[in-house]
């Protein structure tokens, strides 16, 4: 077996072994809420993850002389997918525990939302939506779920938002795993802010914990219960979007709460390295940061455009309502959070309004944040460099061909990712239009697919437990590929193909 693949499998084992800590921690929550029937599900998930991880570490040694980046790309690509599968296990097992009503566990009566996860495909969809920070849910009313599963959904988004590779890197030194160190700068949501990979990851977790606690306290002060505030802070700061209500933030109907959530969502779309330097008081690193300037500019312009469209199309009876709902949905879309204050977008919004928010979801937040999408920094690079380099493709000279139109490496990278991203969007949208029943507007389908692929969670009312299983599977892969920004998946496929051929 190729040494790079052996290294990847060894590090994959380490990642899965560390991930086993999450279901083990959730046992404490189940005990705290006296949901003892959920303990076997979390315990079995922890045992499966820990056993798989230790088994891989035992079978595959850790060779020293390997391409750390190639091994790391395989590790994080496969690891993120397997994390989604493992995250489905507690949902599936708790649902079946309640369904079978085993003696001595005192399981409650089955609810409609929990019954959804009796189907493995729905549990996998929910798990992948969680670890990728997407936020679409198969549960019609997450408030019906056991508290331990509500916590589990929030936890996997909290960890998935900052990245499973950072979870592992916080426990693994660069000497123990050079592939984690090599891939960290590309797959983790920040630049290096400590001298070691583990130091950087640990600093990120402390920063994330601080932001989460502050957000939870803020949401509690404006009226949420402590439990709801904690869950929404965990999924808001990491731009995940899972909620504990049937209709997302619309269930509260509180303009003050909605206004409070705007900065919570926005902070998750800002580069974590910038936030770190802000907390450290290093203002020189903040002033003049081009990406952040463009992010807030996009928020301002996008909000004005969306509100203007809603006013022009009379989507709401008053201008105040247009401002309120247009602003929240645009910010939620651009930051890739997925909190929603109007769950009837597919019916109440005209196509231009949906397309405005669709564009914001495609653009996404800052690179180095928990947001998805193409990323604002790449859009900025394309817009700035296109006038200079865009016409070079029409120059047939040899020098132009050799230098890819004279474009910079950054422009090339941004263009490649954008082309691949729109290609995947087209294919997934085509599949959705083919398998969905007739009657769905193309603008609504495009909105829904862009939301899935950008790991957002805003919905036009299409994705739920009733869509065909084939589309659920397609969207699972779209969430995974979108979270990894496509290229690592292609590289992993190529490396694995070369290994087996």
Automatic annotation (TrEMBL):
GO terms under cellular component: plasma membrane
TM segment ranges: 12-33, 39-60, 72-96, 155-172, 202-221, 261-281, 293-316, 349-374, 414-436
GO molecular function, one term: monoatomic cation transmembrane transporter activity
InterPro entries the UniProt entry points to: Cat_transpt
Alphabetized UniProt keyword annotations: Cell membrane, Ion transport, Membrane, Transmembrane, Transmembrane helix, Transport
Cell compartments where the protein resides: Cell membrane
Family according to the record: Belongs to the TrkH potassium transport family.
Cross-referenced PANTHER family: TRK SYSTEM POTASSIUM UPTAKE PROTEIN TRKG-RELATED (PTHR32024)
UniProt protein name: TrkH family potassium uptake protein
């Amino acid at each position: 077996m190729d040494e790079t693949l052996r290294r990847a499998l060894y590090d994959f084992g380490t990642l899965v072994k560390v991930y086993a800590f999450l279901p083990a921690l959730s046992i404490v929550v189940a005990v705290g809420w006296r949901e003892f029937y959920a303990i076997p599900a979390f315990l079995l998930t922890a045992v499966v993850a820990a056993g798989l991880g230790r088994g891989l570490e035992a079978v595959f040694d850790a060779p020293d002389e390997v391409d750390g980046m190639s091994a790391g790309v395989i590790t994080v690509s496969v690891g993120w997918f397997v994390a989604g599968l493992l995250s489905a296990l507690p949902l599936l097992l708790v649902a079946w525990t309640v369904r079978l009503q085993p003696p001595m566990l005192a399981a409650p009566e089955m609810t409609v939302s929990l019954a959804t996860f009796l189907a493995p495909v729905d549990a996998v969809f929910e798990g992948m939506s969680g670890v990728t920070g997407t936020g679409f849910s198969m549960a019609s009313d997450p408030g019906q779920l056991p508290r331990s599963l509500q916590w589990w959904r929030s936890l996997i988004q909290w960890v998935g938002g900052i990245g499973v590779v950072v979870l592992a890197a916080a426990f693994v030194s660069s000497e123990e795993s050079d592939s984690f160190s090599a891939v960290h700068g590309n797959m983790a949501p920040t630049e290096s802010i400590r001298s070691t990979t583990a130091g950087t990851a640990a600093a990120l977790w402390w920063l994330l914990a601080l932001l989460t606690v502050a957000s939870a306290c803020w949401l509690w002060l404006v009226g949420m219960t402590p439990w709801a505030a904690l869950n929404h802070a965990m999924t808001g700061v990491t731009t995940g979007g899972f909620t504990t209500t049937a209709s997302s933030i619309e269930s509260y109907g509180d303009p003050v709460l909605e206004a409070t959530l705007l900065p919570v969502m926005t902070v998750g779309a800002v580069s974590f390295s910038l936030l770190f330097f802000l907390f450290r008081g290093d203002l020189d690193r903040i002033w003049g940061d081009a990406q952040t300037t463009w992010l807030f500019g996009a928020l301002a312009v996008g909000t004005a455009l969306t509100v203007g469209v809603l006013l022009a199309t009379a989507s709401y009876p008053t201008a105040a309502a247009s401002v309120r709902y247009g602003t929240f949905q645009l910010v939620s879309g651009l930051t890739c959070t997925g909190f929603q204050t109007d769950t009837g977008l597919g019916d109440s919004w005209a196509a231009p309004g949906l397309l405005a928010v669709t564009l914001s979801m495609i653009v996404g937040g800052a690179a180095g944040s928990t947001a998805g999408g193409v990323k604002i920094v790449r859009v900025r690079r394309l817009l700035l460099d296109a006038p200079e380099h865009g016409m070079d493709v029409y120059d047939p000279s040899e020098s132009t061909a050799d230098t890819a139109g004279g474009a910079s490496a950054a422009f090339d990278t941004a263009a490649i990712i954008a082309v691949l991203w729109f290609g995947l969007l087209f294919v997934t949208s085509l599949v959705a239009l083919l398998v969905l029943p007739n009657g769905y507007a193309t603008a609504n389908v495009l909105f829904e697919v862009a939301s899935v692929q950008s790991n957002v969670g805003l919905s036009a009312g299409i994705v739920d437990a009733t869509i065909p299983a084939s589309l659920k599977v397609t969207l699972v892969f779209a969430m995974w590929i979108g979270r990894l920004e496509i290229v690592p998946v292609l590289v992993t496929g190529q490396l694995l193909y070369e290994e087996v051929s």
